[in-house]
Description:
CATH topology of the largest domain: Rossmann fold
CATH superfamily of the largest domain: Alpha/Beta hydrolase fold, catalytic domain
Amino acid sequence: MDIRSPASARLVAYPALTPYRTGRLRVSALHDIYFEECGNPSGRPVAVVHGGPGGGSNPFMRRFHDPSAYRIILFDQRGCGRSTPHAELCENTTWDLVADMEQLRSHLGIENWQVFGGSWGATLALTYAINHPDRVSELVLRGIFLMRRSEVEWFYQDGCNKLFPDHYAPFASLIPPDERDDMIAAYHRRLTGNDRQLQLAAAKAWSRWEGNTLSLMPSPSQGRAFAHDRFALAFARIECHYFYNRGFYDTDDYLLRNSHALRSIPAIAIQGRYDVVTPMSNAWALKSVFPELDLRIVPDAGHAMTEPGIVDELVRATQAFAAA
């Protein structure tokens, strides 16, 4: 474990990139997923796995890897971003997404690749690596989320609300008091119901709550961005669907229980000390069963991938693997 002091000269993200290729891959009779490639077509391949579930990829995610050294692959998971159908929950499980990653890898003619993901992206990266360890050259993770019920309840039920009662109040107010003993179930009813107006209101309240808690320093624009109708609907419906179904894992501690499959994979995890979305205790739990994990704690950061200390460590990690 490495606790980093705030650097006076931190590394920044690489300049903005334009994809040299975009495409769509039919992964089932219902779902198409969007993908794109940036950087060096002959470079070290990396799959950049976005968060949520349901968050979709964005242009900033292209900028953590040296474009002269890496073949940078982004994709939108089922139902979100530019994948279709939008906000669709049918045939949308963790295991579908793991299969999609394998199908995409094969489609692109890649033998193995670095898998890079934060938050839910780290969850999916770990799940993929456990099930396909020979296809993962390295793992670069941020904001460890293990999909345990206690983690979900910390953020949506009782825990984080004590730090952000002003932001939690609008999230809670959508739900009648007699249903607030299980906020995930209450939101799930509204996000999957037939009342489209209520569904959108719930989606925006759900998404705004997360957007307002991501960064160590307040970022009102982030909360507003999360509440845009199209983004919020996919993000909230898909995220709540996964949390309500406990990630579709057969045990609450699936990732910890199966971490032995990861131990031959070089792995770096970046964790903000003041991350309230995926608290540091998650990363600590993973490190306890995966001692080979290079855990780097950023002392002046929260959860967001855009925070300076997080960017610095992620760029350092990808540079180290490129030079290996």
